[in-house]
Specification:
alpha/beta, about 425 residues, binds pyridoxal-5'-phosphate
């Protein structure tokens, strides 16, 4: 049922006028697991998951209870001023969960971008070098250093002035767009030949599955070659698992499926089930390179977010959400592959675990012209979807892993109806 709300459009326009940027057509009233209700009384299935933040769903009862309990004790002290157990407990958990058979240390922050910034700072302190190699269509955030590492995924850096001269751009392997693993490795060798000595490079940073760039997964063989290259030249390998981490890909971190370990791993998003928490976990000897006080921040590892993260980690175990991620991924892949057979514009169905996307092409070219139409049509049918990709032609699914099968199937049926309407209109 739709409530009449005459002031709503005016309020949205006023919000834009007040400078809060792009306003989504849905204004949220409340949300639970994979369902969102808007202020007009409409109900939606959430296949966007707050951009990979809601692997355990909106307001998981355990997360809600843990945060409420923490709120009854204290909300903030700043960990650098007064310590608290939950910060340490989260670090211990992450030291255990992040892949790598070596002693580790963890530091906590607030956003994914901050995690990336701090990973680079640690790598620089450890190597005493400044350069960083990042990849085409890699996305690492929107603060200044993270933005410099972000590739041409969207015009995020437009109008922001010159980006850091210490960032060097390598090709990410993507067979679909004609870049082989050999091409990608050669692009790094070209950097060493033309732009910077390996001894100038502190770190290579990449997402094991590119998120904003279009859900392209690195292969274990490529990761192994990067690991060797880093080992040969004393370069720190940073896995940016902000989007892939916290169980989305069927293992707690995607690197577990890559056969090698990174020196530093970033995490954020779903780690705290909707509360702002991020961090880096790295080899103890690498992490120890930075001076005390070189890491941190007023809200880093907020007690509320730490309580949420501990609950999220428990929920993963209790509800066996890693296995669930693989089940959800298989369900999505199979249904979307059936749709691919019906709609020639769906050129690819891909992803790892439950991080699944389709890529739209027409006449051999990326077809971003359909993306906004698909999102709007799906929305009008009660489904929230997201697009991404360097060409804007990728539609991705990041449904909560806790969503019941029937709801995932209902969402997929809406996708099918949406494609039918958009591609045949
Ligand atoms: N790194 C990756 C891989 C991401 O996907 C994102 C966000 O989408 C970020 C970093 C930045 O995280 P945040 O938006 O929390 O700053």
């Amino acid at each position: 049922m739709t409530k009449t709300n005459d002031g709503l459009m005016a309020r949205r326009q006023a919000a834009v006028a007040q400078g809060v940027g792009q306003i989504h057509p849905i204004f949220t009233e409340r949300a639970e697991n994979a369902t969102v209700w808007d202020v007009e009384g409409r109900e939606y299935i959430d296949f966007a998951g707050g951009i990979a933040v809601l692997n355990t769903g909106h307001l998981h009862p355990k997360v809600k209870a843990a945060v409420a309990e923490q709120l009854n004790a204290f909300s903030h002290t700043c960990f650098m001023v007064l310590g608290y157990e939950s910060y340490i407990a989260v670090c211990e958990k992450l030291n255990h969960l992040v892949p790598g058979d070596f002693a580790k240390k963890t530091a906590l922050f607030t956003s994914g971008s901050e995690a990336v910034e701090n990973a680079v700072k640690v790598a620089r302190a450890y190597t005493k070098r400044a350069g960083v190699i990042a990849f085409t269509s890699g996305y690492h955030g929107r603060t200044m250093a993270a933005l410099a590492l972000t590739g041409k995924v969207a015009p995020y850096s437009k109008g922001m002035g010159l980006m850091s001269a210490n960032v060097f751009r390598a090709e990410f392997p993507c067979e679909m767009h004609g870049v082989s693993e050999d091409d990608a490795i050669e692009s790094i060798e070209r950097i060493f030949k033309n732009d910077a000595e390996p001894s100038d490079i502190a770190a290579i940073i990449l997402e094991p599955v590119q998120g904003e760039g279009g859900f392209y997964a690195a292969t274990p063989s490529f990761m192994k070659r990067l690991r060797e290259l880093c080992d040969n030249h004393g370069i720190v390998l940073i896995a940016d698992e902000v989007q892939t981490g916290a169980g989305r890909t069927g293992t707690f971190f995607a690197m577990e499926q890559m056969g090698v370990a990174a020196d530093i791993t970033t995490f954020a998003k779903s780690i705290a089930g909707g509360f702002p928490l991020s961090g880096i976990t790295g080899k103890a000897e690498v992490m120890d390179a930075i001076t005390a006080g070189g890491l941190g921040g007023t809200y880093g590892g907020s007690p509320l977010a730490c309580a949420a993260a501990l609950a999220v980690i428990e929920v993963f175990e209790e509800e066996q959400l890693l296995a669930r991620a693989n089940d959800v991924g298989n369900k999505l892949k199979s249904a979307l592959t059936d749709m691919q057979a019906k709609y020639p514009q769906i050129a690819d169905v891909r992803g790892l675990g439950a991080m699944i996307a389709i890529e739209l092409m027409e006449d051999g070219q990326p077809a971003p012209q359909y993306s906004a139409k698909i999102l709007a049509e799906a929305r009008s049918r009660g489904l929230i979807l997201l697009s991404c990709g360097t060409y804007g032609n990728v539609i991705r699914v990041l449904v909560p892993l806790t969503a019941p099968d029937a709801q995932i199937e209902a969402g997929l049926a809406i996708m099918d109806g949406t494609f039918q309407a958009v591609f045949t209109s």
